[in-house]
Amino acid sequence: MILVQDILLFSYLKKFPADVLKIDKSLVDYILDNIEDQRIVHAMIDLGHSLGMEIVVEGVENREMVDMIASFGCDYIQGYYFSKPLPVIEFQKLIRIS
What we know:
It is built from four helices and four strands, in the order E-H-E-H-E-H-E-H. It has helices spanning 10-15, 35-50, 63-71, 88-97; strands at residues 2-4, 20-23, 54-57, 76-77. The two termini are 27 Å apart.
């Protein structure tokens, strides 16, 4: 897995075998209001897919962000919108209830 943070080093995409590209929260914090952030995240999702990767976006905090990022073709979305980080035992309980 490659974690995309402040600066994406494209050479890593060639050097390291990875099947998942994770886009950091810092790149989606202002995605609803900033067209440049929207374009960057959308392009990163497209790039990852073109390299055969699945894409995870973290830090999603509301339904509008979910809808936008899903419309870009993101495979997996994480964030407080779905759940705060949970200790293992609480997560196991949540899975059993579901």
